[in-house]
Design brief:
Layout lengths: L1 H8 L14 H9 L1 H15 L3 H13 L3 H6 L12 H18 L3 H7 L2 H12 L23 E3 L16 E3 L2 H8 L24 E5 L4 H5 L14 E5 L4 H10 L1 H25 L8 H12 L5 H12 L4 H9 L7
Antiparallel strand pairs: 1-2, 3-4
Helix pairs in contact: 2-3, 3-6, 12-13, 12-14, 13-14
The structure holds zinc ion.
Length: about 325
């Protein structure tokens, strides 16, 4: 519908009335929604003054910047708004931005295309998303929540207003990924490939955690004051993949830093799980290593398991660990 508006109405603007160029679907909205009518007319007026080349550029930019998957894969480059007629950009940019917030609420759109909320619910149910598909742990609202999480405009509207209503560009992710980390950053700015959220196949990314053995005591105790805060060099987080898409994902969403934070926050309770299972009077586990393995095996698929597993593996490989844990706990673990 919007493609028709751009290609057949605005880019064919001439001395005829704007309304005469609308198809039935657009005409219905035009009659129904004063805001839409006013905007369509105003943009039509600007388009009338464009040269043939400028109209062609508008058409191309609109088509191009909606090819989300190819833009993410970097098989095509985005077209910058700065290459288009300035007067045109001034009117279309706010139009597309507002269109996203407005048009999904219009009855005619809901009747023909369905509800945004239904789409969100089906998308999440089909994929089994409870947690954010981007960071793997952030809260994502579900059918059992009041309201729903906001869709992220993966290519931000600020830079790519033409794809504001393109559902290939609308991703349900957590608030931290969406607003706190990504915000309005131009994700294509670096010119490198980025993950396309709706790709059929995503590679498996394994997280590795490497702890600094010199600060073992600090790692197994809760942080009591700001001066003894764990640093990123003491718990190093990395990925098995080092390709452009993984690097971009890390850069855009600050993933490694956030994963470091999660490990630092949970490190003591994760070790406590190992302690507890080792001290369980009914346990058949005879070594501390076996207790580590048991927790790793049981929890690897649970919430934050993708971080807990590599952290515990890194701790387990440390021969001084048992001694240090023993000193801190004040009772002998090994002699039990
Ligand atoms: Zn997230």
């Amino acid at each position: 519908m919007i493609e028709y508006l751009v290609n057949e109405v605005w880019c064919k603007a001439d001395n005829k009335q704007c309304k005469s160029k609308l198809n039935n679907e657009l005409k219905a909205l035009y009659e129904d929604q004063p805001w839409f009518q006013e905007q369509v007319k105003a943009i039509y007026k600007v388009c009338k003054s464009l040269t043939i080349q400028e109209k062609e550029d508008f058409k191309t930019a609109f088509a191009h910047n909606n090819r989300i998957e190819e833009l993410c894969d970097r098989t095509i480059a985005p077209i910058a708004l700065s290459t288009l007629n300035k007067a045109l950009v001034k009117v279309v940019k706010p139009f597309f931005k507002k269109l996203y917030t407005n048009f999904l609420g219009w009855k005619a759109i809901r009747d023909s295309y369905g509800e945004k909320k239904t789409y969100y619910d089906e998308l999440n149910l089909n994929n089994g998303f409870i947690h954010c598909p981007c960071c793997g742990y952030g809260d994502l609202k579900t059918i059992y929540s009041k309201g729903r999480s906001a869709f992220d405009h993966y290519l931000p509207q600020k830079h790519y207003p033409f794809s504001s209503t393109n559902f290939n560009n609308l991703v349900p992710i957590c608030t931290t990924c969406n607003s706190d980390e990504k915000g309005e950053v131009d994700v294509l700015k670096e010119g490198k490939p980025i993950y396309y959220p709706f790709a059929k196949n995503h590679p498996n990314i394994d997280v590795s955690v490497d702890v600094d053995r010199k600060v073992l005591k600090k790692l197994i105790e809760p942080t009591n004051d700001l001066k003894s805060k764990i640093t990123k060099s003491e718990i190093k987080v990395d990925f098995n993949l080092q390709d452009d898409k993984t690097k971009s994902w890390n850069r855009i969403f600050d993933i490694k830093t956030r994963y470091f934070g999660k490990v630092a926050d949970n490190r003591v309770s994760w070790l406590d799980d190992v302690r507890q299972i080792y001290r369980d009077p009914d346990t058949t586990l005879t070594t501390y290593e076996a207790a580590f393995d048991k927790v790793i095996e049981t929890d690897s698929n649970k919430y934050l398991g993708f971080l807990k597993t590599p952290y515990l593996k890194s701790m387990k490989s440390n021969s001084h660990l048992i001694k240090a844990m023993d000193e801190v706990s004040g009772s002998s673990i090994i002699s039990n």
